[in-house]
Amino acid sequence: MQAVKYTVVLFLLALQNNILFSQTPSTDTLHITLDSAQNMFVRNNLQLLAQRYNIDVQKALILQARLYNNPNIALGMGFYNTVSHRFFATGSGQEGGELISQLSQLVILAGKRNKQIKIAEANAKLSEEQFYDLLRTLKYTLRTDFFNIYYLQQSAKVYASEIDGLNNVVRAFDDQKGKGYIAEKEIIRVKAQLYSLLNEYNDLINQINDTQSELRLVLQTRPNVYIYPVVDTVHLITLTPHQFSYTALLDSAYQNRTDLRIARINTDISKLNYNYQKALAIPDVTLSFGYDQQGSYINHFNSLGFSIDIPIFNRNQGNIKSAKANITNNETLQKSIEATVEENIYRSLQKAIDADKLYKKIETPFAADFSRLTREVLLNYQKRNLSLLEFLDFYDAYKQNVLQLNYILYNRVQTLEDINFYTGTNLFN
Fold this sequence. Notes:
Shape: elongated
Number of strands: 8
Order of helices and strands: HEHHEEEEHHEHHHEEHHH
Radius of gyration: 38 Å
Helix content: 55-70%
Strand content: 5-15%
């Protein structure tokens, strides 16, 4: 029995050390509000910065699409005169040389240039919407992680308080060991409860640290920064999903959902590409002006001409057919996203209303009463006014109550953040 007790004590000490180590003293603590976190995110996030550069890339392609084709000049002269036996001979006659020049310019027909410009402009607009869609997604991650960490930290405080109280009981029991005041099985039962709390607390700390890691990546802070969210809980209580109707939320989503705007732009781009592919079926013309010193039927011959492909075999039929099918594909995807938006809004509003109803059923002084009672229960148990079973039952009930309360509070905020995300607006801020 002594070996078992010794092993349990060592395990508890190791577990406590592990928990303390997870909250490393070398970390830098960052107390931050939601607004400050969002400002830091917009300034520092590397994914956003990369997407901003992609907008510049696409805008540069608009400039490229507006440029005209360069004229082409070709020059040629005699290399070796077989009559005069001279290299690069000049002059006229049989002993002279030959000089040929030609200036040509490609003329693009069927409005291909304007169509290319429109496609480039649409791609630039698409890259901007992709930037805002990334911003919307990362901001949702930031805000949900921010509130999740806050409420998990509130739950961690409960564990820390109960663990501290049980440690005091264990120390008091150890001081009275051998005096016959405390039964050994009671000591083991209290230590088992302490072990259970330490194990749950360790899991909770790991969950907090995992969420901290994700939030640090969004904010682009150093790995040793530990974030303490500063939350205005009074303001959160005033938020209610009943202030917006389903129709209003849906209208907001149709106007502001970036993924829906991306789908619409992709449909527009596919239509522009279809028009461009049809234009490519019309060949372009090359105009040319030539000069021949003495190689034609007269000396110093000047010519004016043009060249054009004859569209007999290749009339771009395959690309036109592909572009047309792509329009249907993108229109179908757009309708699918629109249906998803409607369902997202309906379900998120439904969840938010249910979460708000559940929150309002909670008696707000309940948690405060439990916090006061737990100190009195611990004191009464130490005085032996309560049995071990009553003491442990109360501790477990207190812990479960606070955990459920924090979960309900977080879930309520989470459902409001879902509405923000699905509508593409900060209706609840």
